[in-house]
Amino acid sequence: MELAAVSNNNNNQSNGEKDIIRWFEEVTEKAGLVQTETLRRILEVNYGVEYLKKWIGNIKIQELDGCVLESLYTSLVPLSSHADLEPFIQRIADGDTAPILTQQPITTLSLSSGTTEGRQKYVPFTRHSAQTTLQIFRLAAAYRSRVYPTREGKRILEFIYSSKQFKTKGGLTAGTATTHYYASQEFKLKLRE
Questions:
Q1: How far is the C-alpha of 60 from the C-alpha of 53, rounded, in Å?
Q2: Which residues share a beta bridge with 110?
Q3: d(Cα 142, Cα 135) in Å, to the nearest integer?
Q4: Model confidence over 40-66: pLDDT tens digits?
Q5: CA of residue 12 relative to chain centroid, distance
Q6: Could you tell me if 42 and 29 are in contact, meaning their C-beta atoms sit under 8 angstroms apart?
Q7: 1-47 pLDDT per residue, tens
Q8: Host domain of residue 78
């Protein structure tokens, strides 16, 4: 009975929603491999940034086997908290454009919820991070649609926290991830549909 309900709900989903759920479920079946590939991609793309250079130096990451890379990374780069990265992030907020944490330019600073230490913290966003966040929103919407389907042509009502954007001392736009999304071209185009 329960299986039939899920099956019927899937019929109400768009192909895009079905595709993103299928992609996510395939990726999670091979999570270990995906994590290794993701680590390699992050390290290769950000080779030579100040933070990583401090721990990895000039090791040729491209030449390392996946298992060796993971082992090397975990032995050289310590677990870090936001407090460890905060001085670097503050430099970015103040306008330093050097490759400190990433080779990609920081386009915006997202704000954390503030629940950990009672204050909001900056989280640097690149174009890639923004696209990843949009992918997370799409995935969450697809699963919501599967569990709570809407009839074709109907609307839904969601309450989502947003705030005003502001500029940092260095001129970067700061705000919550949802605020950045609502200010994005993609969202504005979606509203017109």
A1: 11
A2: 123, 175
A3: 10
A4: 999 999 999 999 999 999 898 888 998
A5: 28
A6: no
A7: 333 334 444 556 778 899 999 999 999 999 999 999 999 999 999 99
A8: 2-192
For residue range 77-110, what is the model confidence (pLDDT) as tens digits?
Answer: 999 999 999 999 999 999 999 999 999 999 999 9
Sequence-distant (6+) residues with CB within 8 A of 174 are 93, 108, 109, 110, 111, 122, 165, 166, 167, 168
Tokens of 171: 């001129």
Helix (H, G, I), strand (E, B) or coil at 180: helix
Number of domains observed in the structure of the chain: 1
Alpha-carbon span 35 to 23, nearest angstrom: 15
**What's the rounded Cα separation, in Å, for the pair 59 and 47?**
9
164 Cβ contact list (under 8 Å, min separation 6): 175, 179
Angle made by CA atoms 86, 88, 92, in degrees to the nearest 5: 110
pLDDT for the residue numbered 12: 61
